[in-house]
């Protein structure tokens, strides 16, 4: 029995959460993998109701759970997710980008993953105004850089792919901070002689993600560059409809879609739950590995293939050219699990 | 008579410079617009020969010229271009991205320009190491933000387009620095009631540049985001083969291609000079406006249309699917001017 904390979020968050709950309950009932779900509040609504975007009870419940799923949050997103990433030391933000059949990717042979450092860089929130000027501190540490580099190489080692790690930075301009990051990655690469290591400036990477996305395997980069490049790479493989993310630490992990709260389509039962459900698949993998529970991994694979088979046969939501509502698409998944 | 200083650069720089000189000489001879060209050294070669990537004589010559053209520079690029931008207060980095016929753009109706703040942000070079950590200062000032915002709105006003300015930032995370930038842009927008103003987070922009690039007109952003997004947008319209840039200040301007020194193809007479020559077209525009010299503007238009007509009829370099060498392509241009 796994205890899953679920932040239901804002905008389309509650609809996606309903979809996720229904899928988890189906897994519980049909596939004999047991879950207990605790829904939690955080985000714009929590802020207006309790004065806090991230209420203490929410944090406490998350800490007591085995893993957290977080639906998208609105304007107060940073107060929820950036805080949680740092508080729970979820240092690796994992964002796969893969061409799936029947999705409008720029090419059909893309299979990469961005490993984004998730605890420092300009996200530490140290900013000051000095009269008419303002300054933000960009912090890069050797320890965090080595830790994420190691995560990236381990990821490359486990993937069934070209075994390459591309370290993306801007050390020609930020010689000390990105110099430190690049050196940490290069140092760690020595422990992985079978894995190709390359470096690329962030501007060149933004270009190459369009020019030859199939040449990337694992990309490791600092927090803000990872933010930008992962949104870009999601679009390279056809959009945020199928873009999951995992925030992983040594002892805990949190799973969320890359996309936001999409207030413009909220409450209409048309949002695509796939990104959130693919992040559930990442959770099942993580739980399986952590608890040595092969059942979790199997169920995760089943969930993923169910989603793809549906999409492949044209059973899909409006954003990717289908006509299914959120709940209809979810029901197709639960029926097919 | 205009005095043009020309940094010949590294890698493919000298070949592109030869092409540029030949075109300027042809304009001088055939079109009766007079130029004197002073070639200057800066970059890797200057560094190894003189110990300085940007020799003092080069700076002095640039200052005495009417405008500067800079071919790409190698590993020491930052020591040349970032220093020149700040030293000469070339605060606006203008990077158009346009779908041209017969270029592999993602769509054929893209016509945007990125107006990148060019003097501050993480480019100020204030970095420190603190034991195992390092810190870079990201400086944003209200004055520089307002100045670039004004430039962006003036650009939108003069363009024959949808009259929209999109301010790109990450104020949900960098509340103070990007908050200041966003507010400066919003404040300036009030002076331009006829121009639509919108804001977009940088991650969303990286995505939307692929998803709906035709919806952008003028994008205004901070230095590093502008670096990343302009390389991306060049690729969105088919690559760096046709991507010029202008670094513009109140009294002086410097023109360069967006691409780098491309050492891998240097010395082979295969580089595409179009980006550099289109930056010459931007120079002709700038000179024409500054000196109220309509001849410059006419010649610039002629240069641009000559390049496009050649590309359209398949007369092009290898990188964009043709078979012409750098010198052959240049000769076609000079013959047709
Ligand atoms: C909401 C925002 C703070 C967040 C980030 O920048 O990390 C989001 O864009 C993401 O990528 O998860
Ligand atoms: C060479 C480098 C310092 C430069 C920059 O980052 O500004 C380049 O990428 C550019 O965009 O002109």
UniProtKB/TrEMBL annotation, chains A, B:
Positions in coiled-coil regions: none
GO molecular function terms noted in the UniProt entry: isocitrate dehydrogenase (NAD+) activity; magnesium ion binding; NAD binding
Isopropylmalate dehydrogenase-like domain span: 3-333
SMART domains: Iso_dh (SM01329)
Cofactor(s) this protein requires: Mg(2+)
Alphabetically ordered keywords of this record: Magnesium, Metal-binding, NAD, Oxidoreductase
The keyword Cell division is assigned to this record: no
A GO biological process held by the record: coenzyme B biosynthetic process
Superkingdom of the source species: Archaea
Record InterPro entries: IsoCit/isopropylmalate_DH_CS, IsoPropMal-DH-like_dom
Statement: the UniProt record of this protein carries the keyword Membrane: no
Gene3D superfamilies: Isopropylmalate Dehydrogenase (3.40.718.10)
Pfam families: Iso_dh
PANTHER family for this protein: DECARBOXYLATING DEHYDROGENASES-ISOCITRATE, ISOPROPYLMALATE, TARTRATE, ISOCITRATE DEHYDROGENASE [NAD] SUBUNIT ALPHA, MITOCHONDRIAL
Membership in a protein family: Belongs to the isocitrate and isopropylmalate dehydrogenases family.
UniProt name for this protein: 3-isopropylmalate dehydrogenase
Species name: Nitrosopumilus oxyclinae
